[in-house]
Amino acid sequence: MTQQAGGTPGGAVEESVAEVGRTLAVNLRAARTARAWRLDDLAAHSGVSRGMIHQIETRRTNPSVATLARLCTALDIPMSELVQLPEQLGTVVRRSEAAVTRHGTQGLSEAALLMSDGRHELWDHRLRPGDEIHDSGHPAGTRELIHVNEGTLTVEVGSATFTVAATDALHFRAADRPHTYRNVQAVTARYTVTVIYTGQPDHRYPLHPPRAPEGDNDT
After folding, report:
1. Are residues 166 and 103 in the same domain?
2. The pTM is what?
3. Where are the beta strands (DSSP E) in the chain?
């Protein structure tokens, strides 16, 4: 095994174990207090002693799988919920990190892909007056939830035209057909689009943020 400078495999394992312990302690206490349960209440429902629960919540012990199973059954939550690390619960994506494509006669309108996980996409659009964005259509069954923050957006599909003003929203059920977003007003339209794939994802758009490649194991 190749050892990296500045640390040892054993030290990394110990830190991982400690991090799981910290996470378990916080999540267990949060799940208990969300039900307004005292330590005694959880002990009575789970069959795990009050002292053991207190030790877990104060990171003084690492419980067995059987103990965790009893606690999770009493709290009616999956075991994975107790050991989920903070970064697994959410990801912040900065607008400056978005994948941006430009549109319009002068390239001043933009569509920024904030995030995509293969099943959903979140876009932030800024459409200048007189500009339009045409889409040939997503895979069958795709829907879009459109919310206009500023200005007015016109969405055209087939013979239908939808006019969506600021603070209004559109549940667009025909996103799998060719459609056009158009700004016929004198001010820039800013709107967000959540794309929901019920079948195949749209391979025109990559996952974002890109998933980190699996690290190579040195042996």
Report:
1. yes
2. 0.66
3. 99-103, 109-116, 120-127, 132-135, 143-150, 152-157, 160-165, 169-172, 179-182, 189-196
Q: What element of type H or E holds 106? A: none
The CA distance from 142 to 179, in Å, is: 13
Question: Reduced to 3 states, what is the DSSP secondary structure of residue 113?
Answer: strand
Between 185 and 4, where is the model more confident?
185
- Burial code (b: 16+ CB inside 10 Å, e: under 16) for 164-182 equals beeeeebebebbbbebebb
Half-sphere exposure of 205 (CA within 13 A, CB side): 28
The span from the CA of 52 to the CA of 2, in Å, is 39
Same domain, 100 and 187: yes
| Structure confidence by residue, pLDDT tens digits, 31-52 | 999 999 999 999 999 999 999 9
- Same domain for 128 and 180? yes
Cα–Cα distance for residue pair 112/100, rounded to 1 Å: 4
| Residue 66 binned pLDDT confidence (cut-offs 50, 70, 90) | very high
